[in-house]
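hey so i finally got around to running the thing on that chain from the lab meeting. sorry it took forever, my laptop kept dying and i had to restart like 3 times. anyway pasting the input first so we r on the same page abt which one it is
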Amino acid sequence: MKLSRLYRPQDRRFWLMIVLNLLSAVLAWFLRSWPLVPLATVVVALFALGNAALGMFIAWDLLRDERED
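ok and heres what got predicted. didnt touch it at all, straight out
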């Protein structure tokens, strides 16, 4: 696997990975900045973890993709 396969500005998956990982960081910052009721904390934390997991899956898919754009 080549790390250069990860950077593909013309591929939609690249931009989706960037957006999902940035959203995860914003949600994590939000969780640490404001006290929320327990249910809201769980919901926001699940969204943050889901976004991070989906972003990592897309990154893995980009790394494994052998076609050259």
